[in-house]
Every structure is written in structure tokens, then in C-alpha cells.
Amino acid sequence: MLIKLTGGTVYDPACGIDGQLQDIYIKDGRIVAKPTDAVVEKEYDLKGKVVMSGAIDMHTHIGGGKGNIARTLLPEDHRQDPVHRSDITRSGCGHAMPSTFVTGYRYAEMGYTAGFEPALLPINARQAHMEMADIPILDKGGYVMLGSDDYLLRMLTAKKDQKAINDYVAWTMQSAKAIGVKVVNPGGINAFKFNQRKLDLDEQNCHYGVTPRDILQVLATAVKEIGVSHPLHVHGCNLGVPGNVQTTLDTIQGIGGLPMHLTHIQFHSYGTEGDFKFSSGAAQIAEAINRNKNITIDVGQILFGQTVTASGDSMRQHANHKHASPNKWVTMDIECDAGCGVVPFKYKDQNFVNALQWAIGLETFLLVNDPWRIFLTTDHPNGAPFTSYPHLIRLLMDRSFRNDVLSTIHPEAQKMTTLASIEREYTLQEIAIMTRAGAAKLIGLKDRGGLSAGNWADITVYTDNTDRQKMFEKPDYVFKDGQLVVVDGKVVSTKWGTTHVVRPDFDPSVEKGLKDYFDRYLTMKMGNFKISDDEITEDGRGSITVHPLSS
Amino acid sequence: MTEITEVPSPFCGIGTDDLTIRVDGVLLKVIENGCAVNTPAFEQPMTDISARVAGQEVSLEVAVAKAAELLKDTKLPLIGGCATDVNGMRGLLALADRSGAVVDNMNFTGARNNFLALQDSGWMNTTLAEVKNRCDLLLVVGTDLEGFAPRFFERYLWNKESMFIEDTSEREVIYLGRAPSGDASTNPMGKKAQVFPCAIEDLAEVVAVLRALVKKQPIRATSVAGIAVADLQLIADKLKAATYGVVTWAAGALAYTQAELTVQTLSEMVKDLNNQNTRCSGLPLAGKEGDQTANQVCGWTTGYPARTRFSSGYPEYDPFLNETKSLLANGEVDALVWVQAFNVNAVPPETDLPTIVVGRSGMTFTKEPDVFIPVGTPGIDHAGHAYRMDNVVAIRLKKLRDSGLPSTAQVLNAIEQAL
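^ inputs. structure came back:
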């Protein structure tokens, strides 16, 4: 069927289109050039509408064990937001950590068509993929977590060469079906198992003698050398610790020009100034980002209200458990592989620290110049549930609204932020870069995130509205692979998205050492550890899309 | 005849995946690394191959149509058992959502002791590979561990090599509340575990005193439930002195009222120990017959564990009101679907309600259900996924033979379609 979207105002930064009137044609799920002879079977009149490609959340905790622990932990949160079934949709729950089906519906209802789980533990990757297989409409993928696994740390202690590490990283990516590599509190999750309670960038793991800096260096190098487009995805040391802005600046400096993505940087941008010994480091961070073109970031904005934090960083989550609200929390040590910590949080605008965290996130958005290197996230659900994105977009695009909210937060926090003086308002094109073209480019997604012919037809249509929150929370239409899935902010049909992966090469002999390690120390045979393609495709709903490696 | 190696087991809960199984047609023989739990479960003969309606053999299509007919006008059907693989649970939850059913996993009343503690205060837990490589002290509370999982000690405690324990035979094992049924916990040098028995229902009190001692609270009594406080002090001191202590229990073995408070006290004690400059972790034992699988899949599909109803059009969790036993006793439900793909002995509860059994081939009944559909067992008749006791690890189950039996998912999806 040939579909025509007529006369919309198109924002397609991937092609340099910034608010131009354009027609778009869709055939067999993809965007096509204007056909010379074919008959248009379905036409949508988009005069006065804003057209973008489907949004991509490049860092959202939507699959894996810690998310399911968070769900199990919070029945009272689900009871506030029950979701009824309909003839075409499944029932479930919403709010802080929605059920899988509701995750898919609500993302689609905001115009999102893809989400990437940033913390795929190798041993838990199977679960993450099974959960994501039950998220309808969205495409998905994951970044496999390394850096606190004993295998890598043993390699570093044994002074294995970079080539050997590259093989291990590539093998793990293939085994876990990943599109990127993430490191969380490098070596720190492991150190916590040895009863270390903090680990600075240059502090040694007490057993291995390896530092976070060493781990970042070898992993960032491996990711680059095996040809993975997405740079090493880094959740740095000292999350949430006042003064960690210096750790973050040292981390940027220390990577020596290698591509690196610093995630939820808001949680890593804290100074120690002022009466409360807690201050904003956003200006220093933004200045460093602006200067170092090898660095990309996402913000991890916090927004006020109840949520739950779910992280691989068992060391820092254990330290933060005293802030748990409600007062219940979980940490786990996991399979000589990683760990996790789940701590419910209620961010309050009248709490000085929370209020300043809110301002630090916004300062970061507004002070980083290049929208291609900064991404819109709340680190769902850690800073806020993903359903708060339209509100966040309004804060970025509407200075008077932003200042109105600013004037209501803790008065001491107002004094500690430069936010009121920042005039910048994001444009629609900049929002489209952060949430579409830039995200697709960063992850290395071929044929997604743009509206030129050949791309998959993931398209979102909004009614222009000066209230940007209203505009972004209720798209007129959302197409996923050419199928109309949302009308007026409600799901009208569902489908199953694909799983995006890359398949970097490795020397097959890497399995010799691994098989021996699995047999001696782990609890599963190596052959049973590797996830096969048919585990994702055998139910007839899932599919795998392999993306090219960078040369 | 073929031999299949590295076969993972969905039966024992501890994720053994080193079995060698000889397959001769549909006959299975465990020839390496079997145990008292896994061997009979794998070798269970396949008998029924056809579905039955009112005791008469019928085609699968006829049985599915009859099942749908029985469910069609129900007000509140109950889907019990819930013992199957991940895809089976997906099908089960889709059917429950469509039919407005109550879903209740058969082991939930035991598991509830854990869920209530988790949902009230949380815990710090670990997984089997960490035990294998780090645990220097194992405290087993109220549970016959080897009866639960016969190969636990061989695989995870007396393993020859470990990354961080120089000599694994020097690990210490202490039993509190219940003595072990055999010698699996005796270390390779012949040293027996220390055992401090008490009546199982007295564990609440014993564990409360142990936690108080860990927290250095003064205790005036000299003995608790027959255990000397000095002995509990010894356990507390050992937990504090351990580098990586592990406290384990099976929620179902704590079979007394309000045992969730015992689990909570143990879990809070583990947290206390982690505030005293050492590491310690909990290790809840479970994972039998798909119980963790049921709770995991129900968890991501609904937000809640597998004792949840869909009669309002959305999931409602209640760990007490949605219990099979009371729903049947109070006449609250009007049909029963029993799903049990692992264990022929886990038959549905007795009821006069219309009953549909989606069960493992070989299941026998004192009262023939209205519909019986024999299904394949995940990990024998078809591939699938099951969760281990430690929840983090899902194992990939293998297909071992061609039995022609449909999977749970196929049957439940067909019934849902027919509705």
C-alpha cells in the first residue's frame, strides 16, 4: 500500500531539513521517493502539522532483572495507575516502572518508536531480551555491561594484550545480543563484593590491583577497535557523591580523545560549595563537553515526584539506601559478573539537594552547545519515569515556564543555580536532533532516525502548540514501520519491533579460555550461556536487525 | 539412540546444566550427573498422547474448543498451577487477561513469605556463582538444603576450585532450626556441619535473638527454644568474622504462620552485617517447577507476582485473597484451569467446578477433569526458558526428543484464540 503524508512541516535533521513543507511517501514499511506512477491508496493531510521521525530513547531501563525487582518491590505504586485491557491492548500497570506492554504503548503514545536498555548484564541478557520481547511496537536493543566481571579483571591483572580484550568484548556482545558496551562504576561493583565501599578513578580494586581508569581505557579502546559505532557507554565512578564533578572532569581528560559516552551526567556533576556543601558543577561539565568533541552525554534529568532507582551500581546504591522512600531497597551481587541495586526515591522540590539536582540537569542541557552530542533522558526510571519527557521538553523549550517552576523550588537551591539567567530555549530542530537523528547516529542505527527515502517509516506527527508539553504528549499520528499505531495519542494498532544488534568479529580461539573459566568457576556451561538467534525469533514475533560496523 | 550432553534442568531450581541424557525414541535415561530430584523428573514415562474430553480421547482441536466453551461464560475462572516455562506463562497470562481470571502459582503460599518481606523492607541477596567463589560461611535456616537440591553442596560449596577461597573444604556450614537429612554438607575432609535444631515454628524467636546479638543488643535469656544463647552468639560472631557470609532459607520450608517476619528478620540481619564492615548476603531457595518463572513473567507482564487477578480488566495483586485454596473453599470461582507441565504428581485440587487440565503426560486423576490436554515438558519435549532459584539467571532449556506433544504455550494460545 502506498501512503502519502501531505504538506506537513518536516524536521529531519538527518537530512538537514529544518521546518520545511514536504510530502512523505510510505511503501512496504519504508519511506520511498515520490513514485512516478503508483496510486496513493491512503493520504493524510498534514497541513500545519509538525512531522519528525519516531523518537529514540537511547538510555532507558526497560528490560532486565533490576527492573523486575523494582516492579515487584512497589505494588503500591502500580495500584495508583492500573491500566485496563482493550480489544487491542493488554492490561498492566504504569507509573514508575510500568509493565512491559504498557511501556510499549506509552512510549508509542508519546511518539517514541525505539528504546535501548543500557545495562544488559551478560548473565541476565536473556531475561532482558525476554522482557523486551514483551514490549510491543518499540524497537529495542541493549548495551552489554562489562568492567566488574571477574573475567575481564583477571585478564587485566594477567596483563593480557588489547587484542585479547577486544576478542572477549566482541564475543560477549555477540553472546548477549548487544549493540553497545556499557561500564558501570568501573570495577566498583566488583570491589563492593570485596567490601570496598568507594572506588575513585585512580583507586585500586583491593583484589585485582586494577583501577577504574585502567578499565575505562581498555574498554573504550576495545569498543573502538572492534568497530562498534556506539562509543563506550560510561556510568562513572562516585555517582551522587558531592564533589564528583572533579571525577567526571578527570574521566573526560583521562580517556585521551577516545570516543566515550557519559551517561546520566547530572548525577556526576556535583560540587561541594555553599552552606550545604552541595553545588552545581554543570558549567564546568558543559565547558568540558563543548571542548572535547570525542565526548557525548545524556543528562538523566530528575523531575519531582515518586520514582524508583534501578542501577547496576550496587556499591553506590547501597550507600544511597538511607534515602530510600518508601524505606525498602534491594541490592544484589550477581554471578561474578555484575550486581544491582534498587532504591525507591521521592524527589521533592522543597528538598535542597533534589531541587538543585533538578537545576543541574537543566543547566547541563542549556549550556552544552552541540545538540548532536547531548541526549534527552531521565535515565528512566531513575531520575523520573519516561512519561515525563513532554514536561521536560517544555522546560527546555519555554524559558518563562522554566523560570516559573524555578521560582517554586527550595529557595536556597534557587540561589545556587544560574538557571534563571540562561536565556536559551531549545528549538524544534534541536529537540529532533536530541531525540531522533542524534540518537540514531550515536547508536549506529542504519535506516532509522531520519525521513529520507530508504529509511524505515517510523514517523511521528504533532499538532504545533506553544504549550510544548501538550504538543509532545499527544501526537496526532505515529507510524511504526509504516503501520499506523497511534492516533490522537492513543494506540490504535500494535505490532512487534525488531531487536537491534551489532556483530563484531572475534578470534574463535577466545572460547578456549572462556570454556575453561566457565567450567571451573561459573555455574553454567559456556554453550548454555550464549544466546542463540532463535531465542529471539522462535515465537514468531521477534526479529534481529544487524547493523554495520564502523571501519 | 543419541546422547545429549550439557542438558539443563528445570526441576531442581539450582540450574544444573551438566546432565547427560540418553534418548531412545521417547525414552530418556539420565546417564551422568543425575540426582534424586532430576533423574525421576527426566525419566518420567510419557503415557498420554491424546487429549480427553469427559474421559474420551479426542483431537487437540476438539479439546481446545471444549475448554474455550467451558471458559466462555464464566464470571471468575481460576488458573492454578502455573508450572511451565516462560512462553507457557506468556500464553497463560494472555488467557487470564482475556478471560478475567485469577492467576495463582501453586507454590505461592510458600513464596509469599519472601514477597511480603521483600515488599515491606527489601533485602541484600546473592547468586550461585558468588556462593561458589566467595562464600566462606553458609548459614542454612529451617531448611534441609540437600533434600531441596541434592547437588547444591557438590556444585557450589565443595567445588574444588574457587576464585577467592583458597581451600574450599575450609568453608563452614551451620544449620539453624532443622538438621540436614544426609551428609552432603559434610566437608570433603569429613568435618560435619554444626547443627542447632529447634521446632520449626520457634525459628521466629531464635532468629530474632540472633539478629539482636548481631546488633549487639543485650539478651538476658540464656536459651531460646532449646538453643543456648551462647551458641547463637557464636553464630553471630562467625557471621561478623566471615568475609562473605551467606544466609539461605527456603520460604516454603518455613511452614508456620507469619513466617514472612522470619524472612524479614533474616534479611534485616544481613543488612545489619553489611553495616559492620563485612559482607553478607541472603540466598532464598526456590525455582522448583517454574515458580520463579511464573513470578518473573507475571512480574514484567503485570507489575505483580503470580497471585494476581484480572477480573476488573486490569491486574490486581493480593497475596491472600487470590489464593487457590480459599477461592475454591469460598465458592468464589466458577471454573478451574490447572497448568502443570513439569510434575505428574502435582494434580489439581479437588473441586466440582468445570476443570481443564493442561498437564504433563502421565498425570493421573482421582476425578477425571472435564478436559485434559497432555502437554510437553519444557526442557524435554520442547525448548524454552526457566528461571533458577536466584532469579537473575534464566536457563535455556533444550528439546531432547520428538514426542509430538504440544507446548503449554501452544495449547493456551489456542484456547485464548478460541475465546
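The first strand of chain A starts at residue 2 and ends at 12. Residues 352-367 of chain A form the longest helix (16 residues).
thumbs up if we can close this ticket
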